[in-house]
Amino acid sequence: MPRPQCPRCVRPATRCLCSLIPSLDSRTRVLLLQHPSEVRHALNTARFAALGLLNAQLVVGEVFEDLQALLHPPGYQTRLLFPAEEAQPLQAYTGSDAPLLLVVPDGTWRKARKLLHLNPLLAALPRVTLATGAISRYRLRKAPGPGALSTVEAIVQALQVLEAPASFEPLLRPFDALIEGQVAAMGEETFQKNHADINGKLNGHS
Question: Is the confidence at residue 59, as pLDDT, over 80?
Fold first, then answer.
């Protein structure tokens, strides 16, 4: 018999994290485009980001039929948060007259690139990038390279730049709790033996 599940955070009811999810407003609008393979992922941090931000939307799929409307809400300038040689640093948009719609693909790097390939409107967007060298708080898996963050960490870092001095750190509370729960489940000794020297996270996003 399946365990009862919280319909909001989609965690087992006995480990619901809704009490840790903030309700934060932002001038920047965040559009999360989530690959279907991420929906049941144990660390579905995109969902926590969408739940914790009032001006955010999470859409799941591979091909987004209404993408034109999603990408161009009135009054916003749209940018894709994804690396590229021509990507501009987010600092270039601080103090901008028009707020950003920040589009964030959610999935492994391979799945995120697939979303761009299947949705040419998405791939054609001007790109922005985060500062290099950030270290993920996800301590249980090795990152593929420097600056590889979970989706919620990437969003927090982006909003901290765009909306300084406002703090979006509270968005990380359920993420931190998930990690602590995984460490506790494996036991401190196992964690120290296998993971204590690892910083970073598996994906560009998850």
Answer: yes
